[in-house]
Amino acid sequence: METRPRALLAVSWNRQEGKMGETSLRERREDRKSAQSQEPQTTRLQREVGLTSGICIIVGTIIGSGIFISPKSVLSNTATVGPCLLVWVACGIIATLGALCFAELGTMITKSGGEYPYLMEAFGPIPAYLFSWTSLIVMKPSSFAIICLSFSEYVSVPFYSGCEPPQVVVKCLAAAAILLITTVNALSVRLGSYVQNFFTAAKLVIVAIIIISGMVLLAQGNTKNFENSFEGTKLSVGAISLAFYNGLWAYDGWNQLNYITEELRNPFRNLPLSIVIGIPLVAVCYILMNVSYFTVMTTTELLQSQAVAVTFGDRVLYPASWVIPLFVAFSTIGAANGTCFTAGRLVYVAGREGHMLKVLSYVSVKRLTPAPAIIFYGIIATIYIIPGDINSLVNYFSFAAWLFYGMTILGLVVMRFTRKELERPIKVPIVIPILMTLISVFLVLAPIISEPTWEYLYCVLFILSGLVFYFLFVYHKFGWAQRISKPITMYLQMLMEVVPPEEEPK
Asked: How far apart are CA 116 and CA 360, in angstroms?
């Protein structure tokens, strides 16, 4: 049986070169069906993600380390308790409306890859390529790296009491976390979703502990910090925009399920249901956790706290306050797993469309996972661990995320008129995507207007630099590039035992 995958790979490669005529992998497998009845009918991604796993992916990816460590980012821009809580409520509503727009897109265009296939259908290959270029090279892997660095810091701090852990230790732990998560997701879709379910359950436990503790304190009369909660509020357009910017960053991940649409069981039902259940659940958790924090901390104390949840635990849960750092570590590793699980599919879809190396769209013969795409994503994320500080890089590129969100939702409006023939199992009122497009424009322009810096220009130039690679390697497809890539693709196929995905049976 050890030679079987190599035979399949040889068949796949010869078929691409035109040597096998009309004989396909599926036809050859059907001829041997009696001998190999345990094999799946097609070598493609399988639909193994149900409703529960879908909700866990949304909740587990959105709730990372932010709500435990630095909710002060919103408070610092609003200055008082009342407007701070209102911003958290408004951000939850915006995230829900945006996700409903993506639910229509996801059930109308049932392809994995998030914004990528929607931009392709609405505006053509160039915007879709620029999105994949920016996401795969900077936004997705750098966010993955930051989450793993946050995890490694929380894990290593207890071993270095009274001082900061060495950067070498933190980075090695982060690299080990990336390696572990990448391996899990490359091995099995089901194993990756089980891991996500476990860590989502773990983080919901600590969220429940914080919320219940806060509600008990509130019932006992700890309401002093909520008195005159709007007094002294001095808001400006710049401050409001930055408060929303930080709040929506904490909600980022509401579109994650659209990256794995092809692996959802019954996506027409489970995609919208997961969104409608998952995102309001996160919004309620965020609001109640902020209320809990304010029951034991004044605005000044909260702004001075390095890790708000840890301060809360020290005051309320002592001597069991050690559970907070432990569960924050669980929370971050769960968010990292969800990010890897979904972002690997963007690499896969971009490779399938010819916008990345073709081998990145191949599927493991044994595991039926997009292993090359996930491994590529893990390698890029590991590279981002090496620099000292990549937070600033992500901050400058975060406006690009809302640029592409806005373009995608605008594409939904455009396709209402240009692609009327597409079936729409879910159809949101058109006022919602129009409103979300305007909000996206505001969020893209607000940080540039409030604090204009050259770095935003550099980010725009980087995004546009993708056009150079598009015209050189995608549009024109120079012969010398093909001659180099073909033997590399064949070697990687043999090494990783992967083949091109087969079409789903009609």
From this structure: 15
Which run of H or E residues covers position 492?
helix 479-496
DSSP state of 50: -
Supply the pTM of this predicted model.
0.78
What are φ and ψ of residue 477, in 5° steps? 50, 70
Secondary structure letter of residue 260 according to DSSP: G
d(CA 58, CA 49) in angstroms, rounded, equals 12
* Residues sharing a CB contact under 8 Å with residue 403, sequence separation 6 or more, in sequence order: 440, 444
| Contact present, 386 and 168 (Cβ < 8 Å) | no
- Does residue 498 sit in helix, strand or coil? strand
The span from the CA of 164 to the CA of 436, in Å, is: 42
Judged on CB neighbours under 10 Å (0-12, 13-18, 19+), 346 is: buried
Place of tokens 């322009």: 445
Distance CA 72, CA 197 (A): 28
Per residue in 227-254, pLDDT tens? 888 887 777 777 888 788 788 888 888 8
DSSP per residue over 370-417, as a string? -HHHHHHHHHHHHHHHSSS--HHHHHHHHHHHHHHHHHHHHHHHHHHH
d(CA 84, CA 411): 32
Contact present, 348 and 361 (Cβ < 8 Å): yes
The residues near 170 (Cβ < 8 Å, ≥ 6 apart) are 149, 152, 153, 156
* Beta pairing partners, 264: 49
Length of the chain: 506
Question: Considering only CA atoms, which of 213, 240, 193 is closest in space to residue 55?
Answer: 193
Q: Which runs of E-coded beta strand occur in 163-203?
A: none
- Percent of the chain surpassing pLDDT 70: 86
pLDDT confidence band for 22 (50 / 70 / 90): very low
pLDDT one-digit tens code per residue, 298-327: 888 888 887 788 888 888 888 877 888 888
221: left (phi over 0), alpha (psi -120 to 50) or beta: left
